[in-house]
């Protein structure tokens, strides 16, 4: 049995899920962004951390990724879905659509990105495939069950909290990125170091800089896609949990 957990980012409030309990959790790396929340999905209690805090006050570069992943590990989580919002880069990836990335490129800097060092020694995590193919396939299958198409592609992880310049997005596109967000790293590698299967469910909420029609404000785009998009994310998570429960894999 490998327990499923969630780290939910900017969509948490829009996701509107019931929290049955909150466990304050201490880690050797300091406090996680939120207590470990028991969120109720399809009648099951799933451990979940609010990546930016329950009040959404922690910026992407200030998130204590190590404490978040460690706290969920302590709560038994061995399969982890990160829910993220992203800007869309590929011309055929429109805001409002969902994606399960296959690869990532890390442009972040200065974030604590390993559990190694000190007594644990240096860790050289194998990371050629940064996401769990099995868990990603389960997310895509959940979309298939619901008739919701899932894009695949490459997630470029930027430092934030500011959005990118047009030239930066041009560079990300040349590098092969089809979407851009700020939080899949170091979450993905920290999960890998602990042997947790990790995949991302991303909601496109805006055209990345210089993409899409001119003159549309990013914040207006996010406003118009977040709420409705998160209702689809919630349905996918419900299906994922039901499927896992039917295989006794929760
Ligand atoms: N860039 C980076 N991160 C994001 C974006 C973006 O355009 N939209 C949502 N998260």
Topology:
Elements: E1 3-8, H1 12-15, E2 19-23, E3 36-41, E4 44-50, H2 65-74, E5 77-88, E6 98-99, E7 103-106, H3 133-146, E8 150-151, E9 154-157, H4 166-175, E10 179-181, H5 187-193, E11 197-207, H6 218-246
Parallel strand pairs: 1-4, 1-5, 5-11, 6-8, 7-9, 9-10
Antiparallel strand pairs: 2-3, 3-4, 5-10, 6-11
This protein binds hypoxanthine.
Hypoxanthine binds at residues 85-87, 158, 163-164, 180-182, 205-206, 208.
Describe the structure.
With 250 residues, the chain is α/β, with parallel strands linked by helices. Helix content is 30%, strand content 25%. It is built from 6 helices and 11 strands. The chain has helices at 12-15, 65-74, 133-146, 166-175, 187-193, 218-246, and strands spanning 3-8, 19-23, 36-41, 44-50, 77-88, 98-99, 103-106, 150-151, 154-157, 179-181, 197-207. Strands 1, 2, 3, 4, 5, 6, 7, 8, 9, 10 and 11 form an 11-stranded mixed beta sheet that branches. Strand 3 (36-41) and strand 4 (44-50) form a beta hairpin. Helix 3 packs across helix 6. The N and C termini lie close together (6 Å). The relative contact order is 0.22. The mean pLDDT is 95. Hypoxanthine is lined by residues 85-87, 158, 163-164, 180-182, 205-206, 208.
